[in-house]
Specification:
The structure holds six protein chains of six kinds. By secondary structure, chain C is of the alpha/beta class. Chain C is 42% helix and 12% strand. Classes of the chains: A alpha/beta, B mainly alpha, C alpha/beta, D alpha/beta, E alpha/beta, F alpha/beta. At the A-E interface, helix 1, strand 2, helix 2 and helix 3 of A face helix 4, helix 5, helix 17 and helix 18 of E.
Chain lengths: 142, 194, 378, 282, 677, 370
């Protein structure tokens, strides 16, 4: 909790095979991490449409985390390559349209890395807390 | 002397000593230590004691003063504990808790004082300082010293820094911050860090 | 109805107070109405609760940025409004809402329809590029008076359905001389709601208003007929029509903004009307040249067949046309005739069935003279 | 081509037995410029680690900041203790932003800023890794084929990082010795045994025991000389033989060995400064 | 689109105190009751229990629910359970959504308020999502009864035999020239000390001769495609250069072969020839030519083996072959290899000749090994003292952090054998003795009583530095005797490093092929540590033996049998339902731009040349959704993960409900709080 | 670089010659409309009616690539058809071919130096003064007053890419002078032969060096482009900027309809997915106190950028079609080029260059995690 009590909301699109499993593992290992993340399961990180990311930001999500398999580990062999490109596109657009790209994060977290997942979540949450609330969240005219 | 629990707390929180909780007491450290035979306790045993808050005994032991920073234990430790660093911490704590200063502390001080004064060290200066504190040991080393002088290896004259005043300012500032920290300003920050 | 609740004071404020009152005593949960953004330089539709009301609402916008019926459709299409929502609409928007309700694109459940005597609207493009403050002022002063502001859209200046009749609550402005306004219940629901207002007992006769409305209506109807007649002349025959449409760029924007064109995919964009290159070459050969993209006239005519019966002449298409084609006039003219066949008035009554969805056995016998037969309700 | 490195000599460089002279001579021979960091200060070493919190970082950071300011990206060391102290400070400051901030706060007093954009290296490692062995071979003039050299690495070259070589059984210097045409004592088990470092002063008795082991293993396995790369190691191993007449194992610096191989002169190597006299067996 | 007006039931699980200890489950279920379309919201002690499931079933039947949300553990745990409950109650199983408030919430959140808030958000997301769920039907496919077993060690052999005995066809793939695995290298087995060869050799023969087992040695699996019940496997058969049909196994060729190579089987303690079998009892007993070391292949002359082979079995023209087989399930039994202690340089393995790894010591003890079973130093002496160092590579953050489970026991077996064969002093350097098996502790006691020195302390160093005269010619083992609290320096003649177990090389390729993952130690992740120890997250892929983690022989055999049981059980079902989550293209929206075709890894999408729209082959589609995200037209939807569902879930998560909370539905519905039964 | 040849025929002679000397089934170009004062992109099948064509008329009522797509998507013509395209249209066509929305079989693509076009509302055939100043500016390598802002800032006005079969060099000349042309492709060269134009081996190289005019125009435009991009970027400084940029948008989606790259039949943003249940409106409104309708107005633009920003050729159609004067094209040009830079992709440059989202490079995975 920061001083102003601001609790950001972070949407996480996690791939079923690696990062979602890592999140499960963090749970079973009882690793405590920041409570601001809300997980949405997708089968593969390549399922994450750039529009999802942009919509999340415009709808007021303070952060968007996309989690996929580590390079070479994709369950669908190459999905993460496409995911990276999609996220890169979304990031560039966001950046150029006045949305803070620091709110978008792509991470490769293998299924076995529960602690890494918790670490990434903590790190990202801290970063988002530093950036502050997404102005789009309260922007009626968006 | 501060009570054991507080000392353990300080060791764990301020100096990140809580890492020793990971220790499985395998003894690799003691087995690797070149000075283990001269220590009151091996590092392993020392940690076992610190864990159970026998800090009085820990800080009064000679163990950490014998640590020579060879890192032999650190590289072998199966639990990845940075033993050498904990030895440094214990030395600092022991010095602060005004335990009877062992010879090594005096040596360190003899080393530090010319550094503080000139920014650099000359062997002669350090030895002279140490000699004042431990005349017996100094006497023992006398023949060696003479040899060195003969071989023109002993630098007598100090070589102060060019910008000595700047250096001293830096060191004073560091000192000041360190004191602040001990006085509690930053101490809080430290303790909540983990 | 011969009496309405009379509310004294400036119209704008009064209406806002009235809406707020309904929200505050939980007669309604939210209101869908026009508003302005913080800087006040942009008109739009807003969905508001009592907190948002003060900040954003602006009940009488001088332009129609987006057609209100479309907003109502967005809000209610899937299973109707979740909670009680008041909707403040122009009369043409109200008619479109009724049409869409018939077409099942609007669900009237939980809606309170509120409409008012509409002075018309300025063309969007001219408003955006003109002196907005001046226009705003001109518009506001015309509220509740008999004089129309200068420079209204063509369709507005010939609109004869300018009152909010048919709404649950009608806001009477004409004849009030900007001193206040009437709140006239149009339905049982409206009546119930009005009972909950603060001034529920201050009635005032509507007699003066009705007369003025009648007079204006007659005057507008006349103007409408003459204007439409002359316009019809100017677009008579494909030659003339094509001249009017020559600057069309096929953006289909008119159909996009049209409240009645609710299709998700326009038929004229569909694969059905696409042909191969050779077929297009043959067409070009026949006509000594084929405009690309083709089927321009077909689109407009086809659209007329689809929706002219329900066209409420709101003018949104014309506002949105980037080529300044008088689309709305074109449709109004077209609709004038098609409606006559069936004696159908869009948005008049929710229970009036769409002409295509009913028939009359008698009609069959008179197929040769459709114009002579009056359409009757089944 | 001249290879240029920022150079941190450390306090004991000058007083060490011919280290300075031989290093300079070797550099001349190989075309290396060791550009001394101007106004460097003592690194603090074990003594500061053991007694001070912040100052132990400020000391090495100051020297590194100076190096940065003077445009060096790599700092060459010739002392294991300096090398390890600088590396340790660099690593820690890199990991701990708060600490770095504090250190910089102190350094600002002198108008210095430490960013951490440099590499700390040992001169021996530079010779092995940055130079082709064949390149070094070209300079060899003296045949040392029968000369058995026990490479003594000391503790702090590879520890605790172990990234430039194995922590227990390093072979870097073996490669250098081979390149010089001499015979490295490959089965020298005491190559990373501890020399006792500064304890030599306060606990000389116990240190002598340790050093004997270092010497004895070399003697038993037939070495002609022990080759070192740290002033303190050299001094300890060398000086500990003082009271013992039975052994006479010269302890030289690797730069001196190089000088021998390159056929450099007496003044360049200053072998006379050694406590245990060195005589070339060949 | 709603296929019916949603009536949602929300069920919040306490999971004992796992959830309710942190999350205010009452508050969550009360809150859920206020959400749109929620008909009923309850909480219950254990939703996955029978009464819990019955609660859902009853509500569906009585209250006419048509959507169900359960907020409990990870969907990985019980999604199937609740889908089945929905189906039992008569609604489509895909009308179910799970909110994970245990693994992703109660277990990982410090602050109870935050945890409750997060649970509400997650439940709201699930409620919003389930509204958009569509009726889906799982696909039913036939199961191919053939089974592939990867790895011919004891676990793989056992699995293959059990399945084959059950009358099903097994392909057993082994990359070495012979099956047998690590166990065939051992001499005795602990704690019974029966001879490893005596129990494993009959298995080798049985496997080699079983009519239902197609043995493919010297072969590697290179590709796995398809899905449960219908895998297509590509196997690379390396050329043996010896015709298996002709080779009689007489061994003359090996005798005549002039090329000598360090033996892998003896862990470099002996030499073998370039034409060889790994060990005398190899199955198949066909020799193989090691092309890397064969003089003919290197220098194009020699061919001595060919000259001396009476059966004319040598065939230098053999080429690598790729074989394709169809199977319904796969058992991975790739086993382990031993840790290479050369990286622990303080133990001097590789520097000091008398330092052995435990597997080398197994070979030394084995009658077919380098010393014919005698314990001798390299220079032929009988050792007077032997040190056995435990935990080499194991329980060490610098190497492998886990306990390898078998080292304590085999180390004590060595102690016994050394005693028995040489009478030498044996020093066991251990950290902890772990002997949790039947008869294991008794064996420990026996070895203790035999006079073995048990020194509790991890060895710090093994050196040949001579400190005192008795050290000369010996290796000095340095360790702190932590019980006696002193550093001991013990001179010995021989050191055995009890090296740990690590996954076989190549396991990464296998798991990648079948689409499963490894844990942080590199072993295969099983489906569930307690409830699915032999299954993996990929349906139809099972594990047995050490590839899942270190195991002793009885455990490996048990797992082999267990995996065989799993595979047979799968086969016996005949047909199989598979996930309905596949991509589907709306021909009315598709513009035929074929971008989806470009990004599909499986070639599941192709263009229909008549209608000029793309189509999905559902049998090939794996449901990753890459195409769905790529299609700008959104003509493709991934069933159960379509845009509506994902965006609705996001909407639910993002938007608070505070404003309207409390006044919606509150009067009509009070959340039912069911007291735990 | 292909050599430019003086063809010694004017544009109308050239079109006539195409019909006469080469078996061409049709020519598509801008042409006078029989009714009204406007020009439209028209397909002619005989020499006579093709006399109405005015290929260089500075208006773009439709992006010709869209017309080509409509023309060839279902089936390519069985005989050759010549089509005039501006460079940006040519680029758009290349992009459309990549996504199978157009075919190039039997098309003879003719492109020319583009001086930009006027907003179509602001130019008509009778507007002689404007057209004269356009021609003058053209001749002198200058931007004409009043052309679209994106055109004035377009630096890719010379059809350098090799997709065109015939390239007409115009800048520095007058459009009714004899044409100076090059024939980069085999098809183009065959056409030249058929038309009796001597190819370079017999040498008739360009009499006037056009480079100075091209260069000066390029410089002017480069400067303009920089300024335009800066302006847009400042406009999008933060979320507030994003709001005000699209503040006027009435969600008519005309921009996407006229966009050559937006080929989707149903725009995703018009789909069911973005039609919400009523409760959702209430909840969203509750979050902010007020909800502007229609929702997802900004998302439409941002999302559309994500779909076609990588292929945006900055043709300017969207801005022309916007009824509320949002500088759509300037925005898309600026941000599109930023996105293209990320993948080092230039839309319309090369038919064989894969679309960025349909490909990847092995090395990039490690670099992106942050």
């Amino acid at each position: 909790m920061t001083d102003n009590g601001y609790e950001p909301k972070i949407v996480a699109f996690l791939c079923n095979w690696c990062t979602f499993t890592a999140a499960d593992l963090a749970g079973t290992s009882r690793i405590k991490y920041q409570p601001n993340i809300r997980i949405i399961k997708v089968m593969c990180s390549s399922r994450v449409d750039p529009v999802f990311i942009l919509k999340a930001l415009l709808d007021g999500a303070d952060g968007v985390l996309i989690g996929g398999c580590a390079p070479g580990d994709c369950h669908y062999s190459k999905g993460n390559f496409y995911a990276r490109r999609k996220v890169a596109l979304a990031k560039t657009l966001a950046q150029n349209m006045g949305l803070d790209t620091d709110r978008i994060r792509l991470s490769w977290i293998p299924a076995s890395e529960g602690p890494k997942f918790a670490g990434v979540v903590n790190e990202f949450t801290e970063k988002i807390k530093k950036i502050g609330a997404n102005p789009a969240g309260q922007e009626v005219f968006i | 002397m501060t009570d054991n629990t507080t000392l353990k707390d300080r060791f764990f929180k301020k100096y990140h000593g809580e890492e020793i909780q990971k220790c499985i007491q395998c003894g690799t450290c003691s087995g690797s230590c070149p000075f283990a035979p001269y220590m009151d306790f091996g590092p392993r045993q020392l940690f076992a004691m610190a864990r159970e808050a026998d800090m009085d005994e820990v800080l009064n032991s000679n163990t950490m003063w014998f640590c020579v920073s060879c890192y032999n234990c650190v590289v072998k430790c199966p639990r990845d504990i940075s033993i050498t660093d904990h030895m440094y911490s214990l030395k600092k704590m022991a010095a602060k808790e005004s335990v009877k200063p062992p010879a090594m502390l005096d040596l360190y001080r003899s080393f530090n004082s010319p550094v503080e004064k000139y920014g650099r060290l000359t062997d002669a200066a350090a030895m002279a300082e140490f000699g004042l504190r431990h005349p017996v040991a100094a006497l023992k080393n006398m023949p060696l010293g003479v040899k060195l002088v003969l071989k023109k290896r002993l630098e007598i004259k100090p070589r102060p820094l060019d910008n000595l005043s700047g250096f001293i300012k830096v060191m004073e500032k560091a000192e000041e911050m360190e004191n602040q920290e001990t006085n509690g300003k930053l101490a809080n920050m430290e303790s909540t860090k983990q | 109805m011969d009496k309405g609740i009379w509310i004294d004071g400036p119209v704008n404020k009064g209406v806002m107070k009235f809406l707020k009152g309904l929200l505050e005593n939980n007669a309604m949960d939210a209101v869908l109405m026009p508003g302005k953004n913080k800087t006040g330089d942009s008109n739009a539709w807003f969905f508001l609760d009592r907190d948002g009301l003060d900040e954003s609402a602006s009940p009488f916008p001088p332009v129609m940025t987006t057609q209100g019926a479309k907003m109502v459709s967005y809000l209610t299409k899937k299973n109707g409004s979740w909670k009680k929502t008041g909707v403040l609409l122009r009369p043409c928007e109200l008619r479109a809402v009724i049409e869409l309700a018939k077409l099942k694109q609007v669900d009237l459940t939980n809606l309170v329809l509120i409409s008012y005597d509409c002075p018309g609207a300025f063309p969007l493009k001219e408003y955006l590029s003109g002196n907005q403050q001046e226009l705003d002022m001109a518009f506001e002063t015309s509220l509740g008076t008999q004089t129309d502001p200068e420079g209204l859209r063509n369709v507005c200046s010939i609109c004869s359905n300018f009152t909010g009749s048919g709404a649950d609550i009608e806001i009477g402005l004409i004849g009030a001389d900007s001193k206040g306004f009437w709140l006239i219940p149009g339905t049982e629901q409206g009546e119930e709601l009005l009972k909950k207002t603060e001034e529920s007992n201050s009635f005032k006769s509507l007699e003066s208003r009705d007369k003025l409305v009648e007079a204006k209506s007659v005057q507008r109807k006349e103007k409408r007929e003459t204007t439409l007649d002359s316009f019809q002349q100017s677009v008579n025959g494909p030659e003339n029509l094509m001249t009017v449409l020559s600057s069309c760029i096929n953006c289909h924007n008119c159909s996009r903004v049209c409240p009645i064109c609710f299709c998700r995919e326009c038929y004229f964009d569909s694969r059905a009307l696409n042909s191969g290159a050779d077929e297009m070459l043959r067409r070009a050969d026949r006509k000594q040249g084929l405009r690309l993209l083709p089927d321009l006239l077909l689109f407009h005519m086809g659209r007329m067949t689809h929706m002219s019966i329900s066209c409420v002449s709101c003018g949104a298409c014309e506002d949105a046309c980037p080529a300044d084609i008088p689309v709305s006039m074109l449709f109004t003219v077209a609709a004038r005739d098609t409606r006559k066949i069936f004696d159908y008035e869009p948005g008049r009554d929710i229970d009036e069935a769409l002409p295509y969805s009913v028939f009359n056995f008698e009609e069959l016998k008179n197929f040769e003279a459709p114009y002579t037969r009056q359409y009757s309700k089944q | 081509m001249i290879m240029r490195y920022g150079f941190f000599p450390g306090c004991s460089y000058k007083g060490a037995a011919g280290y300075k002279e031989s290093t300079e001579a070797v550099c001349r021979e190989l075309g290396i410029e060791l550009a001394e960091i101007k106004d460097w200060n003592c690194c603090g070493a074990t003594s500061y680690w053991s007694t001070q919190d912040l100052k132990s970082y400020v000391l090495p950071a100051r020297t590194m900041a100076l190096a940065e300011k003077q445009g060096f990206t790599e700092i060459a060391n010739i002392c294991n203790a300096c090398y390890s102290t600088l590396r340790k400070a660099l690593t820690r400051l890199d990991e701990d932003g708060e600490l770095k901030e504090k250190v910089n706060l102190a350094l600002h007093e002198e108008g210095l800023e430490f960013t951490g954009n440099l590499k700390i290296r040992h001169f021996m490692e530079i010779l092995v890794n940055d130079f082709d062995a064949d390149e070094i071979k070209k300079h060899v003039k003296t045949d040392l084929a029968e000369f058995v050299v026990a490479p003594y690495y000391g503790c702090q070259l590879n520890r605790p990082w172990g990234d430039i070589d194995d922590t227990i059984n390093p072979v870097l210097m073996d490669r250098l010795i081979k390149a010089l045409g001499a015979k490295p004592l490959t089965n020298y088990s005491a190559k990373t045994e501890c020399c006792g470092a500064a304890h030599m002063v306060a606990h000389s008795d116990s240190c002598v025991v340790l050093n004997r082991r270092i010497v004895k293993d070399a003697v038993e396995k037939g070495a002609d000389t022990i080759c070192t790369l740290c002033p303190l190691c050299q001094f300890n191993v060398d000086a500990s033989q003082a009271g013992n007449k039975s052994v006479n194992m010269p302890v030289i610096f690797f730069t001196q060995l190089m000088g021998l191989a390159f056929g450099l002169g007496k003044n360049d190597l200053m072998l006379n400064k050694l406590l245990t006299p060195f005589k070339m067996a060949v | 689109m709603r296929e019916s007006i949603p009536k949602i039931g929300v069920y919040v699980c306490h999971c004992g105190t796992n959830i309710s200890g942190k999350v205010d489950v009452d508050a969550v279920s009360q809150y859920a009751a206020t959400l749109p379309n929620v008909e009923t919201a309850r909480n219950f002690k254990f939703m996955c229990s029978n009464p819990g499931q019955q609660l859902v079933i009853d509500d569906i039947k009585e209250k006419g629910l048509n959507r169900v949300v359960v907020a409990s553990c990870s969907p990985r745990m019980h999604e199937k359970t609740f889908r089945k409950a929905c189906q039992t109650a008569g609604i489509n199983p895909y009308y179910f959504q799970m909110a994970c408030i245990r693994e992703h919430d109660s277990w990982v959140t410090e602050d109870p308020d935050q945890a409750t808030k997060k649970a509400k958000d997650l439940v709201r997301g699930a409620v919003f999502r389930v509204t958009h769920h569509q009726q889906l039907t799982s696909r039913v496919v036939d199961i191919n009864p053939n089974v592939l077993v990867i790895g011919g060690g004891i676990a793989g052999m056992q699995a293959a035999l059990d399945i084959a005995d059950g009358g099903k066809k097994v392909y057993l793939v082994e990359r070495e020239p012979s099956i047998g695995g690590n166990m065939s290298k051992f001499d005795k087995t602990f704690p019974t000390l029966d001879c490893a060869a005596c129990i494993s050799t009959p298995k080798l023969v049985a496997v080699g001769q079983h009519e239902n087992i197609e043995l493919m040695t010297y072969s590697e699996v290179i590709d796995v495609s398809g899905f449960v019940g219908n895998f297509k496997i590509k196997i690379k058969q390396k050329p043996r250069y010896v015709d298996a049909d002709k080779c009689t196994g007489c061994g003359v060729c090996s005798e005549k072969c002039p090329s000598k190579v360090l033996s892998e089987f003896d862990h470099e303690l002996t030499n073998r020839k370039a034409i060889y079998t790994p060990f005398p009892q190899s199955v198949p007993n066909t020799r193989v030519i090691d092309a890397d070391h064969c003089i003919y292949f290197k220098k194009n002359r020699c061919r001595l083996c060919e000259k001396f082979c009476e059966a004319n079995a040598i065939d230098f023209e053999q080429k690598e072959k790729i074989v394709e087989v169809d199977v319904g399930s796969v058992i991975i039994a790739t086993g382990f290899e031993t840790f290479d202690p050369v990286t622990i340089s303080q133990y001097g393995f590789g520097r000091f000749p008398e330092v052995y790894t435990s597997i080398q010591f197994e070979r030394i003890n084995n009658a077919t090994g380098p010393t014919s079973g005698k314990i001798l130093t390299k220079d032929g002496r009988k050792p007077e003292s032997v040190a056995i160092v435990h935990c080499v590579g194991s329980r060490d953050k610098n190497h492998m952090k886990y306990c390898s489970r078998v080292c304590c026991m085999y180390s004590m077996k060595f102690a016994h054998l050394v005693h028995e064969k040489t009478g030498a002093e044996v020093y066991e350097f251990y950290i902890d003795i772990r002997s949790p098996g039947k008869g294991y502790e008794e064996f420990y006691n026996r070895v203790q009583e035999e006079g073995t020195h048990f020194i509790r302390g991890k060895v710090a160093q093994i050196t040949d530095i001579v400190d005192s005269p008795e050290d000369r010619g010996k290796l000095v083992v340095v360790a702190e005797d932590t019980l006696a609290r002193k550093v001991r320096r013990i001179p010995v003649d021989m050191v055995v490093l009890s090296v740990g177990l690590k996954p076989s090389s190549g396991i990464e390729d296998i798991v990648r092929m079948v689409g499963i993952s490894l844990d942080s130690d590199g072993w295969i992740n099983e489906l569930h540590p307690k409830l699915g120890p032999l299954a993996t997250p990929s349906d139809g892929i099972f594990v047995a033996g050490c590839c899942q983690g270190p195991k002793d022989i009885p455990d490996s055999v048990a797992q082999g049998q267990g995996a065989a049981g799993e595979a047979l059980s799968l086969i016996s079902r005949g047909k199989l339902e598979i996930e309905a989550s596949v991509a589907n293209i709306d021909p009315e929206k598709c513009m035929g731009c074929r971008q989806c075709e470009d990004v599909c890894f499986y070639g599941a999408i192709s263009l229909n040349p008549v209608s000029f729209v793309c189509e999905v082959n559902e049998a090939i589609c794996k449901g990753c959704g890459n195409c769905t995200a790529t299609c700008p037209n959104k003509a493709i939807e991934l069933k159960h993960f379509n845009n509506d569902e994902i965006l609705a879930e996001m909407e639910g998560i993002l938007f608070n409900f505070d404003k309207f909370q409390g006044d919606f539905n509150q009067d009509e519905i009070k959340p039912d709080i069911i007291e735990p039964v | 670089m292909e050599t430019f040849i003086n063809s010694r025929m004017t544009i109308s002679e050239f079109i006539a010659a195409i019909f006469d000397k080469r078996e061409t089934a049709g020519v598509a170009a801008m042409a006078k409309l029989p009714s009204g004062n406007k020009a439209a992109y028209t397909l002619f099948t005989d020499k006579k009616s093709a006399e109405n064509s005015i290929p260089f008329f500075p208006a773009m009522p439709v992006n010709a690539a869209k017309a080509v797509s409509k023309f060839t998507r279902q089936a390519s013509p069985s005989k050759e058809v010549a089509m005039f395209l501006r460079p940006c249209e040519l680029r758009a066509l290349t992009e459309l071919v990549k996504i199978k929305q157009a075919g190039l079989d039997n098309l003879l693509l003719i492109s020319f130096d583009c001086g930009g076009v006027f907003p179509f509302k602001e130019i008509s055939i009778s507007d002689e003064e404007k057209l004269k100043s356009y021609v003058d500016a053209f001749k002198n390598g200058k931007n004409c007053e009043g052309i679209r802002p994106v055109c004035a800032a377009c630096t890719k006005f010379v059809p350098k890419e090799n997709q065109a079969d015939i390239v007409i060099s115009l800048i520095g000349r007058k459009p009714h002078d004899p044409l100076v042309m090059s024939f980069p492709t085999e098809k183009g060269k065959n056409t030249a032969k058929a038309l009796g134009i001597d190819l370079p081996d017999k040498t008739h190289t360009s009499p006037v060096a056009p480079s100075t005019a091209v260069e000066s125009l390029f410089k002017e435009r480069e400067e303009k482009e920089k300024k335009l991009k800066e302006k847009i970027k400042t406009g999008f400084a933060d979320t507030g900027g994003l709001v005000s940029m699209f503040d006027r948008c009435i969600s008519c989606h005309a921009c996407s309809y006229v966009c050559p790259i937006c080929y989707c039949k149903n725009c995703y943003f018009d789909s069911q997915t973005f039609e919400y249940f009523s409760e959702s409106y209430f909840i969203r409104m509750g979050e902010k106190g007020a909800l502007r309708l229609p929702v997802d107005r900004t998302l439409f633009h941002v999302g559309r950028l994500s779909h076609m920003g990588l292929s945006c050729v900055a043709c300017g159609m969207c801005e022309d079609a916007c009824p509320v004067n949002i500088p759509v094209s300037q925005i898309f040009k600026t941000i599109g080029s930023e996105a293209q830079a990320v993948f080092d992709y230039i839309p319309g440059k090369d038919l064989n260059e894969a679309l960025p989202l349909l490909t990847y490079s092995e090395s990039e995975l490690e670099t992106f995690e942050d």
